[in-house]
Amino acid sequence: MKRKKTVHSAQCAVHSKQKPCEECVDPGKKESCEKCEEYLQGWKRALADYENLKRDLDRVRSENRERIKTDLAFSLLPVVDNFEVAVGHVPDLSGCDEATQKPIQVWLQGVTFIKKQFEDVFAQLGIEAIDASGQLDLNLHEVVEEHEDKGRKDDEIIEVRSNGWKMGDRVLRPAKVIINKLNI
């Protein structure tokens, strides 16, 4: 009669609800139960190592996603800026006849639509324009020029030269602004 070999692992009855291995049942073989315990501890360590590896890989993936989004934003910011400039320089068409005005207006609508698409993509990526109204915040704004106007508050933003952008709490690029500075 052949005897089946038993595997000493987490299936030992001392440590689980499985059927006990023959060696663990035999009280004279205390070593085999210790061996089962050793295997069980090794298995638990391996499982813990695997869980730590999964957690580390998730963290690295998340960091990579954020880095890629940031790199994409930095690449697209000049394009969005150029669309802003293009839309801001709409020619005066009042002196043109309707046949000339119509194609230019259609072209301008297309440019405006493309700019809107870029802004929508930014919104999906969690990138938003920095509010550049009100008082100066050096964390969000970069002063490029100062003017003196006694009718305004000190450090009040007068004009935005270039939009600023942020992703969550991280500033990608500060807004370039002109501020009111009393007593220049």
TrEMBL record:
Q: Which CDD domains match?
A: GrpE
Give GO MF terms, alphabetically.
adenyl-nucleotide exchange factor activity; protein homodimerization activity; protein-folding chaperone binding; unfolded protein binding
**Location relative to the cell:** Cytoplasm
GO BP annotations of the record are: protein folding
Q: Which UniProt keywords apply?
A: Chaperone, Coiled coil, Cytoplasm, Stress response
Q: Which GO terms describe its cellular component?
A: cytoplasm
Q: Which Gene3D superfamilies does the record cross-reference, listed alphabetically?
A: 3.90.20.20, Head domain of nucleotide exchange factor GrpE
Q: Kindly list any coiled-coil regions of this protein.
A: 40-70
Q: How does it assemble?
A: Homodimer.
Q: What does this protein do?
A: Participates actively in the response to hyperosmotic and heat shock by preventing the aggregation of stress-denatured proteins, in association with DnaK and GrpE. It is the nucleotide exchange factor for DnaK and may function as a thermosensor. Unfolded proteins bind initially to DnaJ; upon interaction with the DnaJ-bound protein, DnaK hydrolyzes its bound ATP, resulting in the formation of a stable complex. GrpE releases ADP from DnaK; ATP binding to DnaK triggers the release of the substrate protein, thus completing the reaction cycle.
Q: Which family does it belong to?
A: Belongs to the GrpE family.
Name of this protein: Protein GrpE
Q: Which organism is it from?
A: Candidatus Uhrbacteria bacterium GW2011_GWC1_41_20
Q: What gene is behind this protein?
A: grpE
